[in-house]
Structure formats: structure tokens, C-alpha cells
Design goal:
The protein is mostly helical. The protein has one domain. 72% of the residues lie in helices and 0% in strands. The protein is built from 12 helices and no strands.
Length: 316
């Protein structure tokens, strides 16, 4: 039968209901408290190093995001570690939770198509994370102004805001992955464990697996061209991980002197002013492949979840 009306009928209702459920749940409150405490500790610890370079750094506010004070990692490092956990915790039972509560057929019996239902679930989770990260970003900026007594420059605001956007896209990758697991696995506990297992692989073990796979595929290159090909192959393998793409994007945005994210040849350094910061537009060009990779991962994973959900049989 041909569907009547727009396939996005009911999208707004699902989106608002999903956001209301997230913000009223104890789960999101615990996660917000966790990320605020850890990120606040990282920023506070970074102030000790920043005070020593006050007046010597043209991008002082960006150091709030990047400076680590042993044993506390940087603010950007904390986000790269915690954002996937928040996304998985929000979306691991998005669809199979409705199935287990037997409310899926009741929802779809309303004038709501599956398209609007699944897209609304995804947008609701992503909007929840975006609001939390934006509030956290504003807290960091406000804390920096109060502590340093200096307003951030326009370039610092632009770079930190771009970093916020990259972080939201990075969260969308893990949210879409959790949505795939929620659609494909019937048990919510199983989908949560599967999501955590994938996160552990990319967060801790991927950097160990890449050299092993590279050596197996291209053992002991003899000439420089083969060695360069091996380096590029290892770089491609490492960039399969969303953590690597997020880390490289953060480095290029928050360290304005970063000119490349790959190998650099001697002739490329000829007449280059080392240490000079790049304009904001040039830094965006440096991370453009990483941004495209993260956005493509979101689209691909959501498409997989959409195709799986459309094929599922839903009974009352």
C-alpha cells in the first residue's frame, strides 16, 4: 500500500518526547554529573600551567582544552573518553527497550511512520548530548574568563566552537552505532555490552592492532617509497577508529600551529615559518577529511539501522 502524507509525520512529537524522557531520567543526570566533575577537574588542573604562561601565549583560552596536569588528562582527552560512553548509555535501549515494554506497536499505530520514529529517536538523543556539551562549553569559557580575567579572542571562540561541533558529530557516530545495536539485538543488556566492547576496542586496543596489521600486510619495506606506503597504510587503518579522527581534529583546531596530520617531508619545510599559527580557515581545511569521515560514519551507521528497522516485523 502507498503511504499517505509525509513520512516525517510525528517526527517532532517523537523528538520532544525522547528529549523529555532523557532529561527526566536518572541516567542522564548521573552522566552529566560525571562529565561535569571530570571535565571541571581537568580544566582546574590545567590552570596551574596556564598561569605560568600568562601573557606569553596568543591562544591562552585554547590551553584550557588541551593542557594536561599529571595525572589528570586534558579536557579534550576527557571528552574523547567519556562522550562515547554517554552516547552508548543514552541509545543502547532506544528500540529494543520499546520492544521489551511492548509499546512499539502502540506507538506505530498512531500517525507516525517508522521513518519519523527512528529519526526522532536519533535526533532526540543527539539533541540531548548537544545541549549538555554546549552547556559544558559555556561553563569552560565562563570559568576561563573568571579565572584569567581576560576575554577570549574571536579566533579562540571560533576554534573552540568548531571543536564543540566536532565533538557533537563524534557523539553522533557512537549514538548511531548504539542505535544499530539496539535495532539488531533484542536484549538491551546485550546491546549495551556490545557497544562497550566496540568502544573498548577502539579506545584501547586499536592502537595496538594497527602496527600488527601493518607489519603483516607490508613486512619490512626495503626502499623509501615502500616505507612511505607502509606509513600511509598504517595511517589509513588508524583512521578507521572514530577516536583517531576526533583526536586529530582536536589537535588541529586547538593547536593553531598544527599544519598537517600526516608525514612531513623535508622539502615541505622549506621556507616554512615553524610555530606560526594557521588561520582558522586553513585549520578547517586540515581537518576536512576527518570531518567528512565522522559525518560519513554517522550517515552509514544510521542507514544500516534504518534498513534493519524497516525489515523488522512488529507485532502487538
Amino acid at each position: 500500500m502507498r503511504r499517505e502524507g509525509s513520512p516525517w509525520t510525528g517526527l517532532g512529537a517523537v523528538l520532544l518526547k525522547e528529549m523529555a524522557d532523557h532529561f527526566s531520567s536518572a541516567r542522564i543526570r548521573i552522566l552529566i554529573a560525571l562529565i561535569v566533575l571530570t571535565a571541571g577537574g581537568a580544566v582546574y588542573a590545567a590552570m596551574e600551567s596556564i598561569r605560568q604562561t600568562l601573557g606569553q601565549d596568543a591562544f591562552l583560552f585554547l590551553r584550557l582544552f588541551t593542557v594536561a596536569h599529571d595525572p589528570v588528562p586534558s579536557f579534550a582527552g576527557f571528552l574523547g573518553f567519556l562522550v562515547p560512553l554517554i552516547a552508548i548509555a543514552i541509545a543502547f535501549d532506544t528500540v529494543n527497550g520499546e520492544m521489551s515494554r511492548r509499546t512499539m506497536s502502540r506507538v506505530l499505530s498512531q500517525p507516525i511512520y517508522r521513518d519519523a520514529f527512528l529519526f526522532g529517536k536519533f535526533l532526540g538523543g543527539l539533541a540531548t548530548i548537544a545541549i549538555c556539551l554546549t552547556a559544558l562549553w559555556l561553563l569552560v569559557i565562563g570559568f576561563g574568563i573568571l579565572t584569567l580575567g581576560l576575554p577570549p579572542s574571536g579566533a579562540e571562540i571560533a576554534r573552540s566552537l568548531a571543536f564543540l561541533v566536532v565533538t557533537i558529530i563524534y557523539a553522533g557516530v557512537w549514538l548511531a552505532l548504539a542505535l544499530v545495536l539496539s535495532v539488531g539485538l533484542r536484549a538491551a543488556a546485550t546491546s549495551a555490552l556490545a557497544g562497550l566492547a566496540i568502544w573498548l576496542v577502539f579506545a584501547f586496543f586499536w592502537s595496538m592492532l594497527v602496527p600488527v596489521a601493518t607489519n603483516l600486510a607490508m613486512p619490512s619495506p626495503a626502499d623509501p617509497e615502500a616505507m612511505l606506503a607502509k606509513v600511509h597504510f598504517a595511517q589509513v587503518l588508524s583512521r578507521i577508529s572514530p577516536n583517531t579522527l576526533f583526536g586529530e581534529s582536536a589537535v588541529a583546531l586547538l593547536h593553531p600551529a598544527t599544519r598537517t596530520l600526516g608525514p612531513v617531508f623535508t622539502f615541505q619545510l622549506d621556507r616554512a615559518v615553524l610555530g606560526a599559527p594557521l588561520p582558522f580557515g586553513q585549520s578547517l581545511l586540515v581537518i576536512w577529511p576527518e570531518l567528512v569521515g565522522l559525518a560519513a560514519a554517522v550517515v552509514i551507521l544510521f542507514t544500516i539501522a534504518y534498513a534493519m528497522f524497516q525489515r523488522q516485523e512488529i507485532r502487538a
